[in-house]
From TrEMBL:
<dbReference type="GO" id="GO:0006189">
    <property type="term" value="P:'de novo' IMP biosynthetic process"/>
</dbReference>
<dbReference type="InterPro" id="IPR020562">
    <property type="entry name" value="PRibGlycinamide_synth_N"/>
</dbReference>
<feature type="domain" description="ATP-grasp">
    <location>
        <begin position="107"/>
        <end position="315"/>
    </location>
</feature>
<dbReference type="GO" id="GO:0004637">
    <property type="term" value="F:phosphoribosylamine-glycine ligase activity"/>
</dbReference>
<dbReference type="InterPro" id="IPR011761">
    <property type="entry name" value="ATP-grasp"/>
</dbReference>
<dbReference type="InterPro" id="IPR037123">
    <property type="entry name" value="PRibGlycinamide_synth_C_sf"/>
</dbReference>
<dbReference type="GO" id="GO:0009113">
    <property type="term" value="P:purine nucleobase biosynthetic process"/>
</dbReference>
<dbReference type="InterPro" id="IPR020561">
    <property type="entry name" value="PRibGlycinamid_synth_ATP-grasp"/>
</dbReference>
<dbReference type="InterPro" id="IPR013815">
    <property type="entry name" value="ATP_grasp_subdomain_1"/>
</dbReference>
<dbReference type="Pfam" id="PF02844">
    <property type="entry name" value="GARS_N"/>
</dbReference>
<keyword id="KW-0067">ATP-binding</keyword>
<protein>
    <recommendedName>
        <fullName>Phosphoribosylamine--glycine ligase</fullName>
        <ecNumber>6.3.4.13</ecNumber>
    </recommendedName>
</protein>
<dbReference type="Pfam" id="PF01071">
    <property type="entry name" value="GARS_A"/>
</dbReference>
<dbReference type="InterPro" id="IPR000115">
    <property type="entry name" value="PRibGlycinamide_synth"/>
</dbReference>
<dbReference type="Pfam" id="PF02843">
    <property type="entry name" value="GARS_C"/>
</dbReference>
<keyword id="KW-0547">Nucleotide-binding</keyword>
<dbReference type="InterPro" id="IPR020559">
    <property type="entry name" value="PRibGlycinamide_synth_CS"/>
</dbReference>
Length: 417
């Protein structure tokens, strides 16, 4: 089967790696891909937003299945385009993708269907926003309404910081049209948990959970990033809370009812970000695609044939029993460019990678001499699996120690439970 994966990051590398393990022969193309995918699959130099060229390539190459990785093309309606051309495509259509494209739309959905979430206020007016924060309890969370690659969320611990954030977003347009309006939320104090679900005709089939790390520095300090580390644990009596699981199961049922009531036609992935506070689960956000770096630890733990899972999802027949998971824990540590998520040096040499290791490339390319170099904020995610989380953590950091690059840095406390 000929498969086209659209995207260039660690998520897409992990999807390609897992699809290559299918029981059926597959020919995998990535557009545009990265240096890691170039070594095992076929990279195609087409930007993820160049819909015309992507479609022309798929038709010319007789692609049988398209998988869309990033949010930008999903929210811009790329799935609709491939569907109209009669090509099977994994991902939500443009209407369903608005659950990620607009945080305000998601808040309206959550409130309408009585799904637990933080209290919030949405406005495009700076004066209204400033008046709201002046009467709100601190800390407070300010979110750009649209897509900001995981960086449009600011936790403000002072009124001054909140006013500066509002000015940056609404007046100075630091995020462009993505912050034409803001969602101001109550701050929830707890721990985050990511749950990715396959969505098969509005029916949610949850994966096992993953815990990512958004803050750039050790101790959960520094600015928000797209995620700089992650782990996934097997479901055991020691790692599960029956009361919490029951809450989350009920929330999934409420989401399904909302999708059906709103007449969505959702096929693909729904990523649900939860905040667990005092044993109570509340929904922070929706994404409509595989998370990054969550994908890099979840797919290595998935024992089912991913190609079959994709096909059943699109056919509307996927069941929880179609997903089988490893009993091992997985840990991924993201090596990222110094300065990320702010300004950073790019195209800096990566001197060596350990052979035979499970390392997903997030942002790499090669120079004219064939030297591996950085090509983005997040660069590499070495992943290790082991029978317990501590062993997986030690193995992941052993891989980190073998990767050398002058511009690379990382957190030292990923999965330090």
């Amino acid at each position: 089967m000929k498969i086209l994966i659209i995207g260039a990051g660690g998520r897409e590398h992990a999807i390609a790696w897992k699809l290559a393990q299918s029981n059926r022969p597959v020919d995998i193309f990535l557009a545009p891909g990265n240096a890691g995918t170039a070594s095992d699959y076929t990279n195609v130099p087409i930007d993820v937003m160049d819909f015309d060229r992507l479609l022309d390539f798929a038709l010319t190459e007789a692609i049988e299945l398209v998988i869309v990785g990033p949010e930008d093309p999903l929210c811009a309606g790329i799935v609709d385009l491939f569907q109209e051309a009669g090509i099977a495509v994994f991902g939500p259509d443009k209407i369903s993708a608005q659950l990620e494209a607009s945080k305000d739309l998601t808040k309206q959905f959550l409130n309408k269907y009585q799904i637990p979430t933080a209290n919030s206020f949405t406005t495009a007016d700076y004066a209204q926003a400033k008046a709201y924060i002046n009467q709100a309890d601190l800390p407070i969370v300010i979110k750009a309404d649209g897509l900001c690659k995981g960086k449009g969320v600011v936790i403000c611990h002072s009124l001054e910081a909140a006013e500066t954030t509002l000015k940056d977003m609404l007046l100075d347009q630091s995020f462009g049209d993505s912050a034409s309006q803001v969602v101001i939320e109550d701050y929830l104090d707890g721990y985050e948990q990511s749950l990715l679900c396959f969505v098969s005709n509005n029916q949610l089939v949850p994966m096992e959970t993953a815990q990512d790390y958004k803050k750039a520095f050790d101790g959960d300090l520094g600015p928000n990033t797209g995620g700089v580390g992650v782990y996934s644990l097997p479901r055991t009596p020691e790692t599960t809370d029956p009361a919490l699981e029951a809450q989350i199961k009920a929330i999934l049922g409420q989401i399904e009812r909302g999708l059906i009531a709103e007449k969505f036609s959702f096929y693909g992935i729904l990523f649900i970000g939860f905040m667990i506070q005092d044993g109570q689960a509340k929904v922070l956000e929706f994404n409509v695609r595989f998370g990054d770096p969550e994908t890099e630890v979840l797919l290595p733990r998935l024992e089912s044939d991913l190609l079959t899972v994709f096909e059943k999802t699109l056919a509307g027949t996927l069941k929880p029993t179609d997903l089988t998971w490893s009993k091992q824990a997985a840990v991924g540590v993201v090596l990222y460019s110094k300065g990320y998520p702010g300004a950073y040096d790019n195209h800096v040499a990566i001197e060596s990678l350990p052979e035979g290791a499970l390392i997903f490339h997030n942002g790499t390319t090669t120079d004219e001499a064939g030297q591996l170099i950085t090509n983005g904020g997040r660069v590499l995610t070495p992943v290790a699996l082991a029978d317990d989380i501590q062993s997986a953590r030690q193995a992941a950091y052993k891989l980190v120690d073998q990767i050398h690059g002058a511009s690379l840095t990382y957190r030292t406390d990923i999965a330090k439970l």
